[in-house]
Amino acid sequence: MSPNIYLDIDGVLLSNGKSAIGLDSFIAYLDDKHQGNVYWLTTHCKGSNDSVISYLKQFVGNEQTLKAMGHIKPTKWNVAKTEGIDLDQPFIWFDDNLLYGEKMILEQNNALENMILVNLKDKPNSLENFVQDFPIPV
To answer: Which residues have a Cβ under 8 Å from the Cβ of 111 and sit 6 or more positions away?
Structure first.
């Protein structure tokens, strides 16, 4: 069974107001290998894909990528992004920031290693690398 995949946008899929290197192949990979198990975990999504896709259209020019992004499911959370994660299921969470409270929740659930801290500034090819060597949840 495919793990749930949770995605932040800014700093993970977008860098400095542009699509991150490898965005199209990363989203295509997720759509092919994990469709139905990919979720938005971003301030741009509070229960609906509409606002996410509207936001991304200004940065993503590839129609296939936008279409695949439309398959990604919304999440609902209030304060901590971990509220939007099903901690009872295997998951991988891609984000560029981890709050202290979120870290504590992940540690309490023995899931800290499932949070992939993305740093596009230092590793701009991260998305391409994930496609080649996709993380496996613990």
So the answer is: 87, 91, 137, 138
